[in-house]
Amino acid sequence: MEFEGKITDGMTGIYPCYWKDADGNEQKLFATQFESHHAREAFPCIDEPEAKAVFELTLITQDNVELLSNTPMQSQERMAYEEWRIKYSKNAPIQDTSFSILQTSFKPTPKMSTYLLAFVTGNLHKKSAKTKSGVDVNVWATTVQPAESLDFALDVATRSIEYFEDYFGVPYPLPKADHVALPDFSSGAMENWGLITYRERVLLDYPGQTSQGIREYIALVVAHETSHQWFGNLVTMRWWDDLWLNESFANMMEYQAVDAMFPDWHVWNQFIASEGLAAFRRDATYGVQSVHVDVHHPDEISTLFDGSIVYAKGGRLLYMLKNYIGEAAFQKGLSEYFKNTPTQILPVMIYGQR
Ligand SMILES: [Zn+2]
């Protein structure tokens, strides 16, 4: 099937991010934002969370950029533009050009929803680490960002995987985890499987400049997105009406992980004092949405992401549940649930009943 889509500035589908390098030259990188239903802007698909598939992505780009997707690279082939045109894209314009083309294929993804597919390409640099279990963790930013601004997120990202592997008793499902700071980004961060994207200010820590409050926020967001690699990515809501199960679990787990990593920050106080109060305040409004919301049309999805309800109030419901059944039973239940996830057999794993 042939398909042609447009790259637009709307920060959904495939979109450009604009920035300036150290010499003040205009630079561009390309990124994706497919949640909730924007994969369809990039390729034809059944663009609903229940319709999971294995993706084998090939990108054709200019040859001097970094290329990232959900899985590690499988192969790369460099060729002259004309050779590429004849071989793959006879409809592309004939150009008198010396630039070469890079064709990059990525390893097959796990079976997953379209909204989690992602790629990023551009002039990026990184810092890397490895978890105890051997997962490669990388934090990326445009080359104009100082290398030391990546260190804090790298530490939290690495330790978050270790924490959740230990807590859930289920290994991180991919060989690598990339975290990328994008100059243009519509929300805070996005949990694409193995390629998490962020707004720069919620990933980069400038030593001596970034406040303690922002560092705590960075740690919470990195832990939140890392927990989604299990909640949401490994097990997925069937339809957007149960989005709260993704976000409320991730909301609670971000505090749990950060509290384990930085006990002297006392982040559970914040869970109550800041987000807890926000949830109460919103919940006192007449006609406020419930935690679970019926969704009849894709255009309704973006209205669901109410931080005070779908994240904070739902996170509190789960926290109450955890306290009611006890920490040990809660942990064991989650672990059993992940271990018995038949993602390898069935096309979809559901949370509860639709
Ligand atoms: Zn989330």
How does the SSE layout of this entry go?
Blueprint: E1 13-20, E2 26-33, E3 58-62, E4 66-69, E5 73-80, H1 81-88, E6 100-106, E7 119-122, E8 124-130, E9 136-142, H2 151-168, E10 176-182, E11 189-190, E12 195-199, H3 212-228, H4 243-261, H5 267-283, H6 307-325, H7 327-339
Parallel strand pairs: 9-10, 10-12
Antiparallel strand pairs: 1-2, 2-7, 3-6, 4-7, 5-6, 8-9, 11-12
The chain binds zinc ion.
Compact overview of the structure:
By secondary structure, this protein is α+β, with helices and mostly antiparallel strands. The chain is built from 7 helices and 12 strands. It has a domain at 240-339: Orthogonal Bundle (Neutral Protease, domain 2).
